[in-house]
Amino acid sequence: MTSLVCPIDYRYGREKMKSIFSEDNRLHTLLRVEAALAEAHAAVGGIPKDAPAKIWKAIDSGKVKLERVKEIEAEIRHDLMAIVRALSEQCGDAGNFIHLGATSYDIIDTANALQLKAAISVLREDLGHLEATLAELAERHKGLVMIGRTHGQFAVPITLGLKLAVFAMEVHRHLERLTQAEPRICAGKMSGATGSMAALGEHALEIQEFVMKKLDLTTEEAATQIVQRDRMTEYVLILSNISASIEKFATEIRNLQRSEILEIAESFDVQKQVGSSAMAHKQNPITCENICGLARIIRGFVTPAFENMPTWHERDLTNSSAERFILPHVSILTDDILVKMEEVFRDMRVFPENIRRNLEMSKGLPMAESVMMALTKKGMGRQEAHEVVRQCSMVALKEQCHLRDALMKDERITSMISQEEIEEALRYENYTGKSKEIVEKVVGIIRE
Questions:
Q1: Residues 225 and 331 in one domain
Q2: Catalytic: which of 19, 121, 196, 276?
Q3: Which of 29, 343, 384, 408 is the most buried (most CB within 10 A)?
Q4: Is 141 a catalytic residue?
């Protein structure tokens, strides 16, 4: 029995994304590239017209086995040539034309591009689901007034809908980034050992164009033996950027789920779920904490991705082993946290009574700016109004009284605005600005 080591094999990630980077799919993808290259040679008259059909038949039959590839590789110690030999064994005379004019990384990098294209398709779907869920929640809560916080302290009121709209637009931008970058990331090539295409002969450019069109990929316009790694680094950077946003969202929920705040929280199955092995009362934000941890692993691959960009001359092999870790891990874990984050938001608990309690707990202090603006409308200079209200706020904090009481004792204020106007300026729901309109605009953008 083989012992599993990597948690991706037994704990994290969805089969939908894992299957893209599985050994079996990797082999099938490499075989597809070899078959497309044979088709290109046949199209320009370089090999018999019936050869590609025989190659495709061997691939589609499933006769090229991973076990046989590994057996050959153990003998010859070359992964791609092991695949070429295993495929050739199943193709009869057509096997003579497999890998014609190519170098290993013509096949490997083009297969990489195919896998990344499939991964991007899944990630775009994930981002679409997440932004749609956030838009729906933002619209539902666009009128729910809550305290805003800056530096971990009470600021001015916002709405829960506005907070979620901010998240929704961030996800929307990530979706745009991934879509815009896809043609740069998903590029293949058939340029040979040093990029000159010499082994492909006079029809080299046509062959390369045929293969990339057949596989629906863009082309590395000028290559060495490899596709240049700035493309893969961009992919890792975008996924790392996404992971940072998802960690931010999860952290916000964790903070707002604190016992003394408890404005929103992860779902919790009170019938079955266990929060702690010791503390029976606990309802921990375990999914959000899991998301935060995995997001950091994703971003940890940024450095090796950058380190893979410099290679000696037209190439060396230092990128190869690192990429076997980087590309599957960032893809699988980003998919994992996106799906988890969408589920957290979809099932998120909201506690309006606690939201109101925390507003009232502030004793009106977050409305200092509102009072200041009311004074300026009556003719007091902005700087003077700020200082007068600041002094009243300090009194309210010292005496642990409501800001209203401190304001009503200050003649500089009562000489400018009435008690009714002060009360109006202290109403939280009167000072959310254009929060609703912003939410409606964001929802409109996303639903387009």
A1: yes
A2: 276
A3: 29
A4: no
